[in-house]
Design goal:
Helix content is 0%, strand content 47%. By secondary structure, it is mainly β. The strands form two sheets. Strands 2, 4, 5, 6, 9, 10 and 11 form a seven-stranded mixed β-sheet that branches. Strands 1-3-8-7 form a four-stranded antiparallel β-sheet, with no helix packed on it. 35% of the residues are buried.
Length: 129
């Protein structure tokens, strides 16, 4: 069965950095576009970034451009999110997800949760001011 597991969250001061990781098993990793989402308490889950198979294309939510970098290592079935210059408003549960419908490419609506087939349980990121 498919398993998606995030790690790397934690508590960091504003301006600091964190690197999230996500490992997927039970699927052919490079058949999937992979996305990062986040959800703050009382808010809807929102798309942060998407990366196509082999990392050929990347997409970001406007507010994260220049601060976050998504990458993947298909040989290790692992997805990453490097987060720099963190702000208190980045505090959220961060989720990794796999998108199957578009055969490895991020869809035109990659930020929609409905585009993704498999989800992890999330890793908490807290940013103190």
């Amino acid at each position: 069965r498919v398993q998606v597991v995030e790690s790397g969250g934690g508590l960091v001061q504003a301006g600091g950095s964190l690197r999230l990781s996500c490992t997927a098993s039970g699927l052919t990793f490079d058949d999937y576009a992979m996305g990062w989402f986040r959800q703050a308490p009382g808010k809807e889950r929102e798309g942060v970034s998407c990366i196509s198979w082999s990392g050929g294309s990347t997409y970001y939510r406007d507010s994260e451009k220049g601060r976050f970098t998504i990458s993947r290592d298909d040989a290790k079935n692992t997805l990453y999110l490097q987060m720099n210059s963190l702000k208190p408003e980045d505090k959220a549960m961060y989720y990794c997800a796999a998108e199957a419908r578009t055969h490895g490419y991020c869809s035109d609506s990659w930020w929609h949760v409905d585009e993704y087939n498999y989800w992890g349980q999330g890793t908490q990121v807290t940013v103190s001011s």
